[in-house]
Design a protein that fits this description.
The protein is mostly helical. The protein has 7 helices and 3 strands. Strands 1-3-2 form a 3-stranded antiparallel beta sheet. Strand 2 and strand 3 form a beta hairpin. Helix 3 packs across helix 4. The C terminus is likely disordered.
Length: about 160
């Protein structure tokens, strides 16, 4: 077996994700993590969540999510509201402006993949999972966050609250 075939396939996947990220950024002016944050809020009761819950859902650290939320807030896609009964906690709320953008955004590659993975036999899904885990082990990536993509959000300092 050719090892280069594995590397070529990995490069194809990474390139496709990078192209998607650039397209979303160009067409909508937001990053994929920002879009995923808004998508998560759209599924929550009253379109609200805490920053901690968003971070857990996206598997990102709190400071990265704080930056994502700050940039979305500047564009009026989300708002921070004090939690009723506990003013120390802010709830992040999807705004009507954010909801409109979300409705006009395309289905992301990972959303398409999720649907397609649901249609393959369990044995193939487990083989794929094991193969990907092997790559994670080889590259010693166990402690890496599972950010949807590396974006400019990952390199900027969080906004001050």
């Amino acid at each position: 077996m050719e090892f280069t075939d594995v590397l070529i396939n990995i490069r194809k996947i990474v390139r496709s994700l990078n192209l998607e990220s650039k397209r979303i950024q160009k067409e909508f002016g937001i990053s994929i993590p920002q879009l995923l944050c808004m998508d998560f809020l759209a599924t929550q009761p009253n379109f609200q969540s805490t920053t901690t819950a968003i971070a857990q859902y996206l598997n990102l650290n709190l400071s990265t999510v704080t930056g994502i939320v700050g940039r979305l807030e500047k564009k009026s896609y989300v708002a921070r509201l004090p939690k009723s009964g506990d003013k120390r906690i802010n709830l992040i709320t999807l705004t009507a402006h954010g909801s409109k953008l979300l409705k006009n955004s395309p289905e992301l590659m990972h959303q398409q993949l999720s649907k397609k993975l649901g249609n393959i036999p369990e044995s193939q899904l487990m083989a794929l999972k094991d193969s990907l885990q092997l790559l994670v082990d080889i590259f010693r990536l166990e402690d890496e966050s599972a950010s949807p993509l590396i974006t400019i959000d990952d390199f900027q300092l969080p906004l001050e609250d």
